[in-house]
Amino acid sequence: MIDIEKCKKLIDENKSYAFIAKELDINVFTLRRKLNQVGIYSKYKPLCRIEITESQLKECILKNFSIKDICKEYNCSRTNVRYLLNKFKLKTNPRPKGFSKYNYTSAKNRGISRKLHFIKLRGGKCELCGYSKNLAALSFHHLNPSLKSFSLEMRSFTNKKIEDLENEASKCQVLCQNCHMEIEHPHLFLN
After folding, report:
1. DSSP string covering the chain, please?
2. Which CATH class is domain 104-188?
3. Which of 31, 33, 37, 154 is deepest in the core (most CB within 10 A)?
4. For the residues 116-131, what does the mean pLDDT come to?
């Protein structure tokens, strides 16, 4: 059974349910249920572990600190900083327009330029009908599907090594979407 006196002592020391459960070598949910049954609740407030004043937060905001910067400054978690910002009804400065945390355009451009490079190496057009108007309409068809390591799609062109792409492209032919679908699904011809 659970030692209620020991639990009370640990709760008075402002220990969390997780800490108490570890000390007593029982499951956290079991501990919480048993303590709730006898009317004992933890006083542990994890969001109050740091002591940052409202003036300190305002000073950080004036320095254009992000939440991440405030965390580094005071050695605390983002949850703690967000809690205090909400408590004091403060907000960090918004990012400048056009700023993105991740620069997706450079990755997208890398994929497009690589696909264009490999299509130009294979003649720059559909090898069956000669279509060459739109890069998005051209795709790579594996001649022998059993040798296929991965699909040559935009994600692959963006993330894979050039050597791997060269190796995979050597197993393929460039086709427009119409020709590709006719080869992949010959049983669906209308006439």
Report:
1. ---HHHHHHHHHTT--HHHHHHHHTS-HHHHHHHHHHTT------GGGSS---HHHHHHHHHTT--HHHHHHHHT--HHHHHHHHHHTT--PPPPPTT--SS-HHHHHHHHHHHHHHHHHHTTSS-TTT---S-GGGEEEEESSGGG--S--SHHHHHHS-HHHHHHHHTTEEEEEHHHHHHHH-GGG---
2. alpha beta
3. 31
4. 93
